[in-house]
Automatic annotation (TrEMBL):
<dbReference type="GO" id="GO:0009055">
    <property type="term" value="F:electron transfer activity"/>
</dbReference>
<keyword id="KW-0349">Heme</keyword>
<dbReference type="InterPro" id="IPR036909">
    <property type="entry name" value="Cyt_c-like_dom_sf"/>
</dbReference>
<dbReference type="InterPro" id="IPR048259">
    <property type="entry name" value="Cytochrome_b_N_euk/bac"/>
</dbReference>
<keyword id="KW-0812">Transmembrane</keyword>
<keyword id="KW-0479">Metal-binding</keyword>
<dbReference type="InterPro" id="IPR005797">
    <property type="entry name" value="Cyt_b/b6_N"/>
</dbReference>
<protein>
    <submittedName>
        <fullName>Quinol-cytochrome c reductase, fused cytochrome b/c subunit</fullName>
    </submittedName>
</protein>
<keyword id="KW-0679">Respiratory chain</keyword>
<keyword id="KW-0472">Membrane</keyword>
<dbReference type="InterPro" id="IPR027387">
    <property type="entry name" value="Cytb/b6-like_sf"/>
</dbReference>
<feature type="domain" description="Cytochrome b/b6 C-terminal region profile">
    <location>
        <begin position="221"/>
        <end position="355"/>
    </location>
</feature>
<feature type="transmembrane region" description="Helical">
    <location>
        <begin position="116"/>
        <end position="138"/>
    </location>
</feature>
<dbReference type="GO" id="GO:0020037">
    <property type="term" value="F:heme binding"/>
</dbReference>
<keyword id="KW-0408">Iron</keyword>
<feature type="domain" description="Cytochrome b/b6 N-terminal region profile">
    <location>
        <begin position="4"/>
        <end position="215"/>
    </location>
</feature>
<dbReference type="InterPro" id="IPR005798">
    <property type="entry name" value="Cyt_b/b6_C"/>
</dbReference>
Length: 453
């Protein structure tokens, strides 16, 4: 081994660089919280390795994607475990990268001279979320399909350019085979390639500027006076222990729980209540507070404000103080934001009934003539895409809106039977072969009752 190292050193001259990376001195106080960055890298490594294995058998086709998942789960040796590792490491990656960013905010480590490190890190966070979104569709099951329909529909609410962005992401006017191919390309080629480039830049900047020491109450001591132990072996050992611990937990979950397969995607099925994975649940739940014409506040305005403030944090907070007491506004806003995300996530995960089956009315408060229509409404999960009494997901128009008063019975029958006869761009599936004519007539009576009440 020593001869190999001498041979490499003579030809590359990398010895000084390796020695600097491994034996550079770290500030005092660097502990377990500073392992979150290396834990993020380890989880990304797991994603790459397991993802490469999955691409050997996965078929990015709407006709064969689901079958290829069944083949990986049932026919390939270790296939279900490797897919489980991929799934659970992706979930842990979301948690760890958010904790890493939270640690940087608490330590004030985004300040000079580490502004560029922060900018790159925020972009990395965005790419990881995009990877989660694009990868979610690939199993091509019911849950993934309808969640993607809703997710891309949200993009369509962006003012001015929403329709263009939605169709660009879908590669079509609807979620279909072209969407799956585009998501696969983004998930395995474009986004990982960009992520690798940004990670190299991010790590290089961390090495260049060093790890920020825990902030003192005063900022009198300089970075050079706070030198502590070497990166290797002290901190490397902590990084390794955390990574091994994560791997053990992920392997346990991959073996005992695995990754969900679900039912194959069926665009004609209408009684499915789309719900995202837990890491997007807070956003999903946020939309419930902004129904109808206010939905753009939840789908566009709030995310843009939060994203912009997060990215520009080093510019907005340029004071020299890094201690918590010296940054009450940043710490306070961060605390409120984290608490809100946790609250909305828990609220979404613990909702006793999905919007497709929630009881909006007591049947006793409805006229007898519209009870049957209300039963049709709940049977087919209309609340998955329409709001009534501020309950439901605002993908389509509200059903208790006055807009339906001026529509004829023939119009409502036609839009229920096949919406694309009204407008080819409508996303709602055709009910002509799913819902009987009598059921459609009863549902129209219920809609008429809503508009009058």
């Amino acid at each position: 081994m020593r001869k190999l190292w001498i041979w490499l050193e003579e030809r590359t001259g990398i010895g000084p660089q390796i020695n600097y990376i491994l034996y550079r001195r770290l500030p005092r106080g660097i502990g377990w919280f500073h392992t979150l960055g290396s834990a993020t890298l380890f989880l990304i490594f797991l994603q790459v390795i397991t993802g490469l294995f999955l691409t050997l058998y996965y078929v990015p086709s709407a006709d064969e994607a689901y079958e290829s998942i069944l083949f990986i789960e049932g026919e390939i040796q270790w296939g279900s475990i490797i897919r489980g590792i991929h799934f659970w490491s992706a979930n842990f990656l979301i948690v760890i990268v958010f904790l890493h960013m939270l640690r940087v905010i608490i330590w004030g480590a985004y300040k000079r001279p580490r502004e560029l490190t922060w900018f790159v890190g925020v972009i990395i966070l965005g790419i990881i979320l995009a990877l989660s979104f694009t990868g979610y569709l690939l199993p091509w099951n019911q849950k993934a399909y309808w969640a993607t329909v809703v997710g891309t529909e949200i993009l369509g609410t962006i003012p001015v350019v929403g329709s263009f962005i939605k169709e660009a992401v879908r590669a079509d006017t609807v979620v279909g085979p072209l969407t799956l191919t585009r998501f696969f390309s983004l998930h395995v080629l474009w986004l990982p390639g960009l992520l690798m480039i940004l990670i190299i830049i991010h790590v290089a900047l961390v090495i260049r500027h060093g790890i920020a020491e825990p902030p003192p109450k005063s900022f009198l001591r300089t970075y050079s006076q706070l030198k502590g132990s070497a990166f290797f072996p002290d901190h490397v050992l902590k990084d390794a222990l955390v990574s091994v611990g994560l791997f053990i937990v992920i392997m346990y979950l991959a073996i005992t729980v695995g990754a969900e397969v679900g039912e194959p995607a069926d665009p004609a099925t209408v009684n499915v209540v789309p719900k995202p994975e837990w890491y997007f649940m807070f956003f999903y739940k946020l939309l419930w507070f902004f129904p109808g014409k206010f939905e753009v506040v939840g789908t566009f305005l709030i995310p843009v404000i939060i994203g912009s403030v997060l990215f520009l944090l080093p510019v907005l907070d340029r004071g020299p103080g890094r201690h918590l007491f010296q940054r009450p506004v940043v710490v306070g806003v961060t605390g409120i934001l984290v608490a809100s995300i946790v609250y909305l996530t828990i609220l979404g995960l613990t909702t006793p009934k999905p919007p497709g089956t929630v009881e909006i009315f007591e049947k006793t408060e409805l006229p007898e003539a519209v009870v049957a229509g209300y039963e049709v409404y709940t049977k087919y999960g209309c609340a998955a895409c329409h709001v009534v009494r501020d309950v439901g997901v605002p993908v389509g128009p509200r059903l208790d809106s006055k807009r339906w008063i001026r529509r004829s019975e023939e119009y409502l029958e036609k839009i229920l039977a096949d919406p694309k006869l009204i407008n080819p761009r409508y996303e709602m599936p055709r009910y002509e072969d799913i819902m009987s004519k009598e059921e459609r007539q009863e549902l129209i009576k219920f809609i008429r009752f809503l508009e009058q009440s």
